[in-house]
Write a structure and sequence with these properties.
three-stranded antiparallel β-sheet; elongated; 9 helices; 73% helix; Arc Repressor Mutant, subunit A; mainly alpha; Four Helix Bundle (Hemerythrin (Met), subunit A); 227 residues; 3 strands
Length: 227
């Protein structure tokens, strides 16, 4: 039986998304390094695909900030720099601060308990020096607050930013540099218990600034080591 147009489009979109996901993950894990060239021909050969969905995946990843497409040269993995860190946390502070203020008016006791459990997991991972586990739970903590806020546009923007920013997490070398964040989380939770949106926003912004300081220090240290 022949596929109808919608099935063909859906199949084509799935190929593009799969290629984008594979490349995005490789870039995040630095299997493909910043500044490294990525060619349509290489990806087509590796995965046995036509070049059309690959080209579209490249455009998608360019819009997300993972690739930079240069005329007559092709695609290269976007470089990382300190300004990216600063810009990211400025946006994150504003959006997550607002989300915390709104969430303080809506949060249930059960959701507060869930935040407490996640923060305890952060403390446990920090004690075990497990950076990957700590980072994962840290993101879950913040994602729950975004969900409680309920603003889908903010959720979409922050989720896309964080996904792109995961590349920087590979510069964090120790859980001790992140463990201070659970103290900020304790203060955020206390503000939620008091249903104090202004205080929740204040502590969320402080948490973002701490994240910027931690990551900037680690990133600059790595960059100095390369020189």
């Amino acid at each position: 039986m022949h596929k109808n147009i919608s099935e063909i489009i859906a199949s084509h979109r799935t190929l593009r998304e799969k290629v984008a996901e594979l490349l995005r993950e490789a870039i995040i894990q630095q299997k493909i390094k910043p500044g490294e060239r990525v060619t349509e021909l290489e990806i087509a050969s590796r995965y046995g695909l036509s070049r059309t969905p690959i080209r579209e995946a490249f455009r998608q990843l360019e819009s997300e900030g993972f690739l930079k497409i240069i005329p007559r040269k092709g695609a290269i993995v976007a470089e990382l720099d300190a300004k990216d860190i600063k810009d990211f946390y400025e946006i994150k502070a504003v959006l997550e601060g607002y989300a915390a203020r709104v969430a303080a008016e809506r949060i249930s006791d059960a959701e507060i308990s869930q935040l407490e459990r996640l923060n305890q997991k952060m403390k446990d991972y920090a004690a075990k020096m497990d950076v990957a586990g700590l980072t994962k739970v840290h993101n879950e903590f913040h994602n729950l607050i975004l969900d409680i806020c309920g603003n889908q546009k903010i959720i979409l923007v922050v989720t896309n930013l964080v996904q792109q920013f995961l590349r920087f997490r590979f510069f964090v070398s120790s859980s001790s540099s992140l463990s201070k964040m659970h103290a900020d989380h304790d203060r955020i939770i206390a503000a939620f218990k008091a249903r104090d949106g202004v205080l929740a926003e204040k502590h969320m912004i402080a948490n973002a600034k701490l994240g910027e300081e931690v990551l900037m220090k680690e990133f600059l240290s790595v960059q100095e080591g390369k020189q």
